[in-house]
Design brief:
The structure is a single chain. The mean pLDDT is 92. The protein is globular. The chain is built from 22 helices and twelve strands. Strand 9, helix 20 and strand 10 form a beta-alpha-beta unit. By secondary structure, it is an alpha+beta fold. The strands form two sheets. Strands 5-12-11-7-8-9-10-6 form an eight-stranded mixed beta sheet, covered by helices on one side.
Length: 578
């Protein structure tokens, strides 16, 4: 098989693509329905956002699939050429964009200038947009979106009472919200990068380059970090109750079974857990794909996180961490500002203001996207539940193997699609075994029959004294034992104080940062999820560590330097050294 049913073609005008940041948005192969139904409309929202901001002329990005992203081998790619283009049109260089989005990599495709990359008209328009947005004290449009989406969630119809056709109609009725939320995410992401871009050089000029990470940490009101607060409160209920502690000692699955018909402390926990799911049940691993299981769709995942967090000491609470980080940030901001010349201090103030407004705003727009995606997910899962009942496939999410264009025909004759879905499930499982290239810069790289299998990557285990290089994302140094976690739903082995080593992270991983002493992530950049949350919780992080989850092994002792962006292997268990 050379390609998957949703794969696209490389753009001739913007030919280079990357998994950087894309890997944390859609870490697994995208489901056909998730891509064609949700993302097909979402990319139109991106188009509106980029054109409105002033990055593109309308005619440059027409068509049903704008060139901002690509799909190869079922894997989601961001268009690196596009990111370079918008950077250039905002007055930056391609090298600066590469550093921010890709990190330090030796295999980054060489930028080749195009005569239309620079556009004075668009640069002026984008600059004016940035100046206007940096003068704002908030992003009221995103706040209004959040309130509207919460109302949609509260007023969700009883999906079990809708006909199959009505379920599809309901899902499609939410696509306007998809386009709006995706547009807002673009609009907030651009100014969110301005604050760090201002503060970084100022701190480096004072020979304190790592200070910038502390200045943009502990901001509070960051939606991607907020699930940790709810899960922490649940974990304290467990700690305070002998009955709940005994129940959780039996494992998350036993807890889930016990919640039905519960009484006493278990009932109180169940009631609090239901409130948590109402507020944060739309989050979960791979949450940008309707095929994935949100916490609402699979509550046992959230219970597993509560089980891990209950072992953490009380002084590791999100509130206490935020208090410490706020004091540190305010003290450091005062020191840095006073060390700068008076005529530069207003620039510093602008950088701080931009960070404090737009980094949380970006996370809010991301959370809004996830909320509407989950509403679509739950409607389509009900359709899938009925398919399971009819014996067409094994799991409700299997219905996501359909294309959007096939939904109406499926409703009319579900049985016709049983064999189609079965074949696609086999092919989809095969995609998960492949290792997608980090960059796609040539047509030959889109042929998936040439991609290596993950089991055959040939990456050697790190040895004592080895130093793995990445990008410092959250300042500080920490030494601890490695715990490799490839799926937050399988986090039972993570112990308090261990170093979490992960391939990517999204909001589903957030609570694990309350347990870990530091984080090492294979992919990511300065505004990626792992970095934002680690800064909010005050633990060191190094991102963009190539092959980190395959070179590091459980039980190794490593030192994570989130300031320098290095991971040093201090010790290797004897069993691994043989």
């Amino acid at each position: 098989m050379k390609s998957w049913i949703t794969d696209g073609r490389r753009s001739e005008r913007l030919p280079h693509y990357t998994r950087a940041n894309a890997g944390e948005t859609l870490p697994e192969p995208a489901s056909p329905l998730g891509w064609t139904l949700v993302w097909g409309r979402g990319l139109q929202g991106w188009r509106r956002g980029f054109v409105g901001f002033g990055i593109y002329h309308e005619e440059e990005v027409t068509g049903p699939w704008p060139p901002f992203a690509g799909m190869f081998g079922g894997y989601f790619y961001l268009n690196l050429s596009h990111m370079r283009l918008f950077g250039i049109r905002m007055g930056q260089t391609a090298d600066q964009i590469d550093t921010a989005f890709v990190g330090q990599r030796s295999d980054t495709p060489v930028y080749v200038a195009h005569p239309e990359d620079e556009d004075a008209e668009l640069t002026a328009k984008a600059g004016a947009t940035v100046q206007r947005m940096l003068g704002q004290t908030g992003f009221p449009e995103a706040d209004a979106d959040q309130e509207r989406l919460r109302r949609i969630r509260r007023e969700r119809p009883d999906l079990t009472q809708l006909s199959a056709a009505e379920l599809v109609t309901h899902a499609r009725s939410l696509l306007g919200e998809v386009e709006t939320t995706f547009q807002r995410h673009v609009e907030s992401s651009l100014p969110a990068s301005v604050g760090p871009a201002i503060l970084g050089p100022l701190c480096a000029g004072l020979d304190r380059p790592g200070a910038m990470l502390d200045l943009i940490g502990g901001l509070g009101d960051v939606d991607s970090a907020s699930p940790s607060t709810g899960l922490w409160a649940l974990s304290r209920q467990v700690v305070a109750s002998a009955e709940l502690t005994a129940l959780f000692n039996q494992g998350p699955a036993a807890v889930e079974r016990a919640l039905d018909g519960a009484s006493g402390d278990v009932k109180a926990f169940r009631d609090a857990f239901e409130e948590f799911l109402a507020a944060s049940g739309d989050r979960g691993p791979n949450e940008w794909d309707i095929h994935a299981l949100s916490w609402e769709a699979a509550p046992v995942q959230a219970l597993a996180l509560v089980d891990r967090i209950r072992h953490s000491p009380d002084d590791d609470s999100p509130a206490e961490r935020h208090r410490r980080l706020t004091e540190r940030r305010e003290r450091l901001a005062k020191e840095i500002r006073e060390a700068l010349p008076e005529d530069v201090q207003p620039v510093f103030d602008a950088g701080m203001h931009a960070s404090q407004v737009w980094i949380p705003a970006r996370e809010r727009t991301k959370a809004n996207c996830v909320t509407v995606i989950n509403e679509i997910r739950m409607a389509v899962r009900e359709l899938g539940r009925r398919g399971v009942g009819a014996g067409l496939f094994a799991e409700p999410e299997d219905v996501m193997m359909l294309l959007e264009s096939e939904l109406d025909d499926y409703v009319a004759d579900p049985g016709r699609f049983g064999p189609v879905i079965a074949q696609r499930l086999r092919e989809y499982a095969g995609l998960r075994e492949l290792e997608p290239p980090f960059f796609v810069a040539q047509d030959s790289q889109t042929a998936i029959d040439t991609w290596p299998r993950r089991s055959e990557d040939g990456i050697a285990t790190a040895g004592e004294g080895d130093v793995l290089k990445g990008v410092g994302g959250s300042q500080g140094t920490y030494t601890g034992r490695v715990r490799v976690v490839t799926d937050p739903a399988s986090c039972e082995a993570l112990e308090p104080g261990e170093v979490l080593v992960a391939p990517i992270t999204d909001a589903a991983w957030t609570p694990l940062f309350l347990v870990a002493g530091a984080a090492v992530v294979d992919v990511g950049a300065l505004n990626s999820h792992a970095v934002v949350v680690c800064r909010e919780l005050g633990i060191p992080a190094v991102i963009s560590v190539e092959g980190g989850t395959r070179r590091l092994r459980d039980g190794m002792v490593i030192t994570v330097d989130g300031t320098r962006g290095t991971v040093t292997v201090d010790g290797v268990p004897a069993a691994l050294a043989i």
